[in-house]
């Protein structure tokens, strides 16, 4: 199974979990009523544009309804966010940037203010290429031998084949969000 399919499977499982948490713990009837009131409050701004007192009252009601909306979703949102925080580290270790392999050549980019010291076993193939407009400097490096040393923080390692690194979080939340919307049972009870 490819890393992409594993990520999609993990996102689907998380989406189902989040949907079940919301279905079980959110006060759905109140949530839908408050959401409808929020839309009505926003419509009041357009309808009563020449009535400052009514606009002020609508704004205060909008703030009050937003606080109520947050109270409706705070518990399930907290549980879903905490569970993702627990999952993030192992998911990032697997789907994030894999360690460099021996005989691999990549471009490494750092902020201009950082003067990195590369670990032993890494050969710097090019002189630094500065891009002042972006505030970055880049080198092409080649891994000559395996090293246990860790690259300094702040470095960006160039894209490699099959690399979904930074995008894995976006893909994860897109797939899990769509999945949670497709889980049956979340209705206007």
Polypeptide structure, described:
- By secondary structure, this protein is an alpha+beta fold.
- Helices cover 54% and strands 12% of the residues.
- It is built from 4 helices and 5 strands.
- It has helices spanning 3-25, 28-47, 52-95, 167-182; strands at 105-111, 122-124, 129-131, 136-143, 156-157.
- Strands 1, 2, 3, 4 and 5 form a 5-stranded antiparallel β-sheet that branches.
- α1 (3-25) crosses α4.
- The longest helix has 44 residues, at 52-95.
- The radius of gyration is 25 Å and the shape is elongated.
- The two termini are 40 Å apart.
- The model has no long low-confidence stretch (mean pLDDT 84).
User: What is the global morphology?
Assistant: elongated
Strand content: 5-15%
Count of DSSP strands:
5
State the helix count.
Answer: 4
Task: Supply Rg.
Answer: 25 Å
Distance between the termini: 40 Å
Q: Biggest sheet, open or closed, and with what strands and sense?
A: 5 strands, antiparallel
Classify the helix fraction into a percent range: 40-55%
Structural class: alpha+beta
Nearest-integer average pLDDT: 84
Secondary-structure element order, N to C: HHHEEEEEH
Low-confidence stretches: none
